[in-house]
C-alpha cells in the first residue's frame, strides 16, 4: 500500500530562481523543488508553457491541493509601471481560450493588499515568445485588451482546470510596456533561467549599447521582486491558499 501523500496546501510554479527567492531564503537553483512555510511547495519550472505544465502536474502528483502561478510579467498597458501587482481574474490565449482564477481566494488577497500596493485585476495574456519591443506590446494590448503578458500562467491554469483545483495568479510588472528588452537580456539566460556568462559577454561585446537597457531592466526587476516580497509579508506564508 502506497504511503499517503503529504498535505500540500498549494503548489507554486515559478519560472526563475529569482522569482522563487521572493518566497524563501533557501538556496534555489533552476529546477529546484522545495517545501515552503505554510504547507506550500515551490517548483521552479524554467521558462515557457511546456515547462510550467510539467511543474504544475508534478506538484499535483505530490499532493498539492491548489496551484499558483508566481513571478514577474511584461506590461502591455502603458499606465502600468514596474512593480504593479497583478491579481488577474483570468488568463487567456489570443484564440479565446481562457482560465479563471478562484474568485474567493483572489478576493481575500485583494482585501489584504489593495491599500498596500498598486495593483491591477485586468486579464493577463499568454505569449509563446518574449515580446521585446514596445510596438509588439502595444499591438497585443490593442488586440486583446489584456494589461500584461507572461509565458506560464495559462499552462498552470489549464492543469488546475483539468484537475478541478483552485488556481491563482500572483505576478508583478518587471518590464513596462514602453521598455524595449535589450537583445543581450534575451540571450544571457537559458530556458531554465540560468545565466550564460559567455553568451552575455559575447552579446555585450557586439552590442555595448545594451548596458543601459540592462541597467533599466534590472531596476524594474527589483521593483517587481519588492512587490512580490511585500505580498508575502502582508498575507503570510500560506498566500491565503484555501
UniProtKB/TrEMBL annotation:
**Alphabetized GO MF terms:** adenosylhomocysteine nucleosidase activity; methylthioadenosine nucleosidase activity
Q: List this protein's GO terms for biological process.
A: L-methionine salvage from S-adenosylmethionine; nucleoside metabolic process
**Which ranges carry the Nucleoside phosphorylase domain?**
42-180
The protein's name: Hopanoid-associated phosphorylase
Regions crossing the membrane? none
Q: Name one GO cellular component term.
A: cytosol
- Output the NCBIfam families linked to this UniProt entry: HpnG
Coiled coil, from the record? none
Amino acid at each position: 500500500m502506497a504511503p499517503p501523500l503529504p498535505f500540500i496546501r498549494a503548489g507554486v510554479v515559478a519560472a526563475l530562481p529569482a522569482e522563487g527567492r521572493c518566497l524563501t531564503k533557501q538556496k534555489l537553483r533552476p529546477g529546484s523543488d522545495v517545501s515552503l512555510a505554510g504547507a506550500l511547495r515551490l517548483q521552479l519550472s524554467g521558462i515557457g508553457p511546456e515547462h510550467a505544465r510539467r511543474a504544475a502536474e508534478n506538484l499535483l502528483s505530490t499532493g498539492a491541493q491548489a496551484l499558483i502561478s508566481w513571478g514577474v510579467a511584461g506590461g502591455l498597458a502603458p499606465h502600468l509601471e514596474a512593480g504593479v501587482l497583478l491579481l488577474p481574474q483570468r488568463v487567456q490565449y489570443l484564440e479565446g481560450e481562457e482560465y479563471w482564477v478562484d474568485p474567493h481566494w483572489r478576493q481575500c488577497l485583494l482585501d489584504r493588499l489593495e491599500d498596500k500596493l498598486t495593483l491591477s485585476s485586468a486579464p493577463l495574456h499568454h505569449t509563446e515568445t518574449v515580446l521585446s519591443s514596445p510596438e509588439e506590446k502595444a499591438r497585443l494590448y490593442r488586440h486583446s485588451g489584456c494589461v500584461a503578458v507572461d509565458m506560464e500562467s495559462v499552462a498552470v491554469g489549464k492543469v488546475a482546470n483539468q484537475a478541478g483545483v483552485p488556481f491563482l495568479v500572483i505576478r508583478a510588472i518587471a518590464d513596462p510596456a514602453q521598455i524595449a528588452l535589450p537583445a543581450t537580456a534575451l540571450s544571457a539566460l537559458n530556458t531554465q533561467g540560468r545565466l550564460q556568462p559567455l553568451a552575455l559577454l559575447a552579446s555585450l561585446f557586439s552590442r555595448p549599447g545594451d548596458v543601459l537597457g540592462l541597467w533599466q531592466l534590472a531596476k524594474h526587476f527589483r521593483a517587481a521582486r519588492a512587490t512580490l516580497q511585500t505580498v508575502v509579508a502582508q498575507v503570510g506564508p500560506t498566500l491565503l491558499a484555501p
